[in-house]
Design brief:
3 domains, 3-stranded antiparallel beta sheet, 19 strands, flat
Length: 363
C-alpha cells in the first residue's frame, strides 16, 4: 500500500474540506444562474412593451421585427431554467462523510495497487496500463488528480491530467499520446457527466475507474488520431497520414509525400514532389534539380537535353546573326575613284560602255 492509513485519513480530511467549499459555492451558483434567468425574463418584458408601442402607432414592420426578437428570447428560457434546476439538484447532494472518503481511498489503493500522493503538487495519482488497442501499443499512463481544484465550482480541464509515461505518439501529431488524449487532456465523451458526478460527490475510486475505462476503450467515431493512422507518417505537403507502403520519397528535398502530392521528372523519371519540379523554358517539360541547368550564353533555365541538343533560342539567334553577317561580307562592290562612292551592279556596266564609246569616237 503506497499511502499509509494515517495519511489516508489526512487526505480524506483535506478532500472533505475542499468538497465543503465546493458545496457552499454551489449556492452562489444557484443565485447567479437564477439572476440570469430573471434577466432574460425582464428582457422579454421590455420587448413586449416595445411591441405594444409599435402596434399602437401602426408600425407594422417594426412590430414584426420585435415579434421575432421575442421569439428568439423565448428559445433561451428553457436552457437557463434547466441550468437553475440542475444546480439546485446538485446542491441537494450532501458532503460525503469522512469514513466514506477514506473507504474510497482504500478501495482505489486496492483496485489500482499504485495509488500515490504527490505532496509537492498535491496530486493523487494512479497508473493505468500498459495499454494496447487494436494491436497498437500505447504504453502506460498516469492519471493525476489535482486535489485543490475539487473546491472549484467551474472546474477547469486541468483538474486532472493524463500523462504518458512511455509516449508512443502518432507520426502526424506529437501532442496526441492516446486516441482520446491530446495535450494531456482526456476527451471524456459520454463519460463526462459520470466523471463530474464522481468528483463532486467525493467518489475518488469511481473517478479513477471511469477514467481508466475511457483509456482502455477505443471509440472510432471521436479520436484525435484514429488507430488506423497511428503508425503512418504525414505527407510533407498536405499533412495526410500515409501508410508505410503508400508514401513516396522525393530525392530532391528528401521528404515523404502522398500519391496526390508526388510527381516525377519528365527526363529521368525520378519521383519528385511538385515543389521541386521546374518547367524548362524551351521544351516546357517538368524536370528535377538534377536534370535542369542554365544556358551559358543567356542564362535561361532549361533541361540538360535541350542544352545538349542546342535548343536554346539564343543559339538560333546567334546563328542567324552570323549568317546575316556572312551574306553582308560576300556582296560585290567597287569604288568611284573620282567621286569616292561605291559603284555596284548595272552602274559599273554603264561606265564600261561609256568608256568604249569614247574610244571609238576618238579613233
Amino acid at each position: 500500500m503506497d499511502i499509509p492509513a494515517r495519511k489516508q485519513i489526512r487526505l480524506a480530511e483535506m478532500i472533505q474540506q475542499r468538497l465543503r467549499t465546493h458545496h457552499s459555492q454551489r449556492f452562489g451558483e444557484v443565485i447567479r444562474r437564477t439572476c440570469t434567468l430573471l434577466d432574460n425574463v425582464a428582457g422579454l418584458r421590455r420587448m413586449a412593451d416595445l411591441l405594444a408601442i409599435c402596434i399602437g402607432r401602426g408600425w407594422n414592420a417594426a412590430a414584426s421585427q420585435m415579434t421575432e426578437r421575442i421569439h428568439q428570447g423565448l428559445r433561451d428560457l428553457p436552457y437557463h431554467a434547466s441550468e437553475v434546476e440542475r444546480i439546485v439538484e446538485v446542491c441537494k447532494t450532501p458532503v460525503p462523510a469522512m469514513k466514506d472518503i477514506v473507504a474510497e481511498l482504500q478501495q482505489a489503493d486496492q483496485e489500482f495497487d499504485q495509488l500515490r500522493h504527490v505532496e509537492e503538487s498535491d496530486l493523487l495519482a494512479i497508473t493505468v496500463g500498459p495499454i494496447e488497442l487494436e494491436d497498437i501499443y500505447l504504453g502506460e499512463f498516469e492519471v493525476q488528480l489535482h486535489l485543490p481544484s475539487l473546491s472549484e465550482v467551474r472546474r477547469p480541464h486541468a483538474i486532472y491530467r493524463i500523462v504518458a509515461l512511455d509516449p508512443h505518439t502518432p507520426a502526424c501529431n506529437d501532442s496526441v499520446t492516446h486516441p482520446h488524449v491530446s495535450d494531456e487532456h482526456l476527451c471524456e465523451g459520454d463519460a463526462g457527466a459520470a466523471i463530474e458526478a464522481a468528483l463532486t460527490n467525493g467518489r475518488i475510486c469511481d473517478f479513477f475507474q471511469l477514467v481508466s475505462a475511457v483509456l482502455t476503450t477505443y471509440n472510432p467515431h471521436s479520436p484525435y488520431v484514429s488507430l488506423s493512422d497511428w503508425d503512418g507518417r504525414p505527407c510533407y505537403d498536405c499533412g495526410y497520414t500515409m501508410a508505410a507502403d503508400d508514401s513516396y520519397w522525393c530525392s530532391s528535398c528528401e521528404n515523404d509525400f502522398c500519391s496526390e502530392c508526388i510527381s516525377c521528372c519528365n527526363r529521368c523519371d525520378e519521383s519528385t514532389c511538385r515543389g521541386c519540379l521546374e518547367e524548362c523554358t524551351v521544351c516546357g517539360e517538368l524536370v528535377c534539380p538534377s536534370c535542369k541547368t542554365t544556358c551559358p550564353d543567356c542564362g535561361r533555365m532549361l533541361c540538360r537535353t535541350c542544352l545538349e541538343e542546342s535548343q536554346c533560342p539564343c543559339i538560333e539567334e546567334r546563328q542567324e546573326n552570323e549568317e546575316n553577317q556572312d551574306d553582308s561580307d560576300q556582296a560585290p562592290s567597287t569604288v568611284n575613284t573620282e567621286a569616292g562612292e561605291p559603284i555596284t551592279g548595272d552602274s559599273s556596266q554603264e561606265q564600261d560602255h561609256a568608256t568604249s564609246q569614247a574610244g571609238v569616237e576618238a579613233a
